[in-house]
Amino acid sequence: MASPPPTALHVEAAPALELLTVPQVMARLQLGRSAVYDLLRTGQLASITLGRARRIPTHSLTDFIHTRLEQEAA
Fold it and tell me: Per the database record, which ranges form the Helix-turn-helix domain (predicted)?
């Protein structure tokens, strides 16, 4: 009895990780600079630091928005 041929493994390509600057987040959320930095400082919005530059992954911004929507709905 012959075994079935091996199936090809499909590796899903991870979406490109886009990093946003603070001014880009300010524009998307329509908030001021200090409000965005308050969100970063309190951990409500995740970020990474590259040298002296702060960058916010797009998925962190999306997660933040979804969390806030769920809080508002409750």
Answer: 19-66
Taking a C-beta distance cutoff of 8 angstroms, is the pair 40, 29 a contact? no
Domains of the chain, residue spans: 19-73
Give strand ranges (E) for the chain. 19-20, 48-50, 53-57
Cα–Cα distance measured from residue 34 to residue 10, given in angstroms and rounded to the nearest whole number: 44
Contact indicator for 2, 42 with CB cutoff of 8 Å:
no
Q: What is the pLDDT of residues 18-61, one digit of tens each?
A: 999 999 999 999 999 999 999 999 999 999 999 999 999 999 99
CA distances from 55 to 26, 33, 60, 67 (A): 12, 14, 10, 20
